[in-house]
Amino acid sequence: MKRALLVVDVQPTFCEGGELGVEGGNAVAEAIGTFVQQYGDQYALIVTTQDWHIEPGPHWSEQPDYVDTWPVHGKAGTPNAQLHPAIAALGLDHHIKKGQYCAAYSGFEGIEDNTDDVPTREQVQAHASQTLEQLLRDHDITSVDIMGIALSHCVRDTALDAQRLGFETRVYTDLSVPVSVELGEQAVQRMAQSGITLLEGDEYVD
Asked: Has this prediction a pTM greater than 0.85?
């Protein structure tokens, strides 16, 4: 078994003070940084995902409903769209950018882009084959651990896609934070029903 770690959307835009700040975001970012320092060498691959919106259409709205439409967030090239400093300090090599020209919640909707460039539509389309799934397949990954922000949205959707694609999937709920307690409970229930393993506690489970 070869396992990868997926660190989902740990960006200032989703932490306290950000455009879509989630309570506890900064603390989770620091906790994930510590986790990777302690257990990162147990993974065959570590990948981050980021919202990297350029022109995502109706995903951005001046009158958001906070279900399908949202205020401007994760704007490509801005400081708040970068990785959180606690994650950036890890010096990881593989980064998935998503949502450049559309809405995107799951990391499996993005492409690998290890730069901070703001690509054109044509550049995104030209690299459409460089998906997270392809990256995992190229490294012979069979299982994934997932953590990040927000548990109720992008962590959930990334985990559901991973499970659907045949990866043994585990989510560290204590190293993820939801938009709200209620939405977090709904996400946990849905993931459990899909056969995803939910881990609690702050110790790495082999």
From this structure: yes
* Residue of 15, 154, 157, 161 marked catalytic: 154
List the alpha helices (DSSP H) in the chain.
25-39, 85-88, 121-126, 132-138, 156-164, 181-193
Q: Which of 9, 145, 157, 161 is catalytic?
A: 9
- Whether 98 sits among the annotated catalytic residues: the reply is yes
Annotated catalytic residue 15: no
Residue with tokens 């990334």: 158
Are 179 and 150 within 8 A, CB to CB?
A: yes
Written as tens digits, the pLDDT of the chain (206 aa) is: 899 999 999 999 999 999 999 999 999 999 999 999 999 999 999 999 999 999 999 999 999 999 999 999 999 999 999 999 999 999 999 999 999 999 999 999 999 999 999 999 999 999 999 999 999 999 999 999 999 999 999 999 999 999 999 999 999 999 999 999 999 999 999 999 999 999 986 666 77
Contact 2, 143 (CB under 8 A): yes
Catalytic residue among 15, 98, 113, 161: 98
